[in-house]
Amino acid sequence: MRDVRTVEHYFTVPLDHAEPDGETIEVFAREYVAASVPEAETVTLPWLLYLQGGPGGRGVRAGSLSGWMKAASASFRILMLDQRGTGLSAPADRRTLPLRGAAADQAAYLARFRADSIVADAELIRHALGSGPWTVYGQSYGGFCALTYLSFAPEGLKEVLITGGLAPLKGHPDRVYEATFGRVAARNAEYFARYPEDRGRTSAIARHVDAVPEYLPTGERLTARRFQMLGSFLGGNTRVDQLHFLLEDAFVATPEGPRLSDSFLHQVSDQVSRAGNPLYALLHESIYCQGEASRWAAERVLGSRPDFRPEAPNPLFTGEMVYPWYFEEDPALVPLRETADLLAAKEDWPALYDAEQLANNAVPAAAAVYLDDIYVDHGLSMETAAAVGNLRVWETGDFHHDGIADDGGGIFNRLLGMVRGSL
After folding, report:
1. Phi, psi for 170 (deg, rounded to 5)
2. Are residue 231 and residue 94 in the same domain, yes or no?
């Protein structure tokens, strides 16, 4: 690897932290240190724990240092955690989960894979590494986890940086989707104003797959509602242009008439499959649940948004939402449908945040909140910001949800300066 040294770490942690002497799982993390730092001096660098977005996102695999990692490596040893259930940390998917037993056993197992367990893992890891309170950097869902860390283990934290990840601290998941559907609709309008020719293309593709069977490389038929999942491109500054480039060569002429090209279908498959992160679909709504069931909240809220219905004359692209039909159409999820239904019906989710502790927070914290974020709503983020003590907020319209992909170094340095009082 160029300009970086790495060390692989494996840790044994309890599956259920409430039963420390019970079943255990193995959790993996990779340490990154700038090669310019003499090896003898490595041990003097403080640790920075990076919490990836998700749920279901494994830690970044970096072959060299760039963006925020290059900026952070000037001052830190970076610990890139594979959160439990991802990467090399007890991966959970359609192949491994049957080892747990039937759907009810799988659901009970996955109930221990939320932010509270991730934070408890992190504290055990911190102690195993011999670190004092460390710096935590949370992107998106990683920011949710950072708020849980501030709630239940603030003694382990020196400072906290959050990008696009101030989670709502209370309320049913419905309010999340009521807010984000509006954000996604506005982003659709912005996109089609930028590329007006894509309005017709999008509708044509949706109607085409209704009438003509088109199959993804993984074997299943592409449906209009699955095609709408390409709205994931709308969450980025530059990725939005990639959606246009994808749509512009969707159709090719064939002896049977216009058909979707193999290149288009291949690229769509890469975007709409959850094979790489099934936990995103399985646990997504549960990350908002505290003492209540989600019961497929996004699907319920969708009922009041006909503009997003696949049968609409000009259907809009969707955003982060997860629907039960994912488990009917995605081969990576089909075997997990009953497990997903049980998780959606679970009512006794424990608390993820301690409102009193957060209000009295003494750990220096800074958060970047994006004005037009379609995944983590600005209004809900600012509601949370007002409820967390010692938190400085940078509101900006310069970036969308994936801001650290555009200017990771600049964003990291600004947040670090904010927590340390230099900005």
Report:
1. -150, 170
2. no
